[in-house]
Amino acid sequence: MRMYELLENELDVMSADDKQVTLKDPKTGIETKVPRDPKKPGVIQKDPSDASGKRFVIDTGSNGEVDKGIQPGAKVVMKTPM
Q1: DSSP per position, 10-39
Q2: Is the confidence at residue 57, as pLDDT, over 90?
Q3: pTM higher than 0.85 for the full model?
Q4: How far apart, in whole angstroms, are the C-alpha atoms of residue 68 and residue 12?
């Protein structure tokens, strides 16, 4: 499953370990694994507009690191093209 094929704009973080972060589409139940390897696409960073720190933004078109503060139960939103 490709990230752009997901139906929902907001995904749930199911697990996060040293190798990958598992995201789940709440509508379809489909799980997607995002590697923590900075050389692979899928940057996940904290959402600057969220004061709680439990909301993150994923940019599937960029390479980089996944935020180390991401935990199960957090929400990840797809970065919208400008």
Answers
A1: EEEEEEE-SSEEEEE-TTT--EEEEE--TT
A2: yes
A3: no
A4: 16
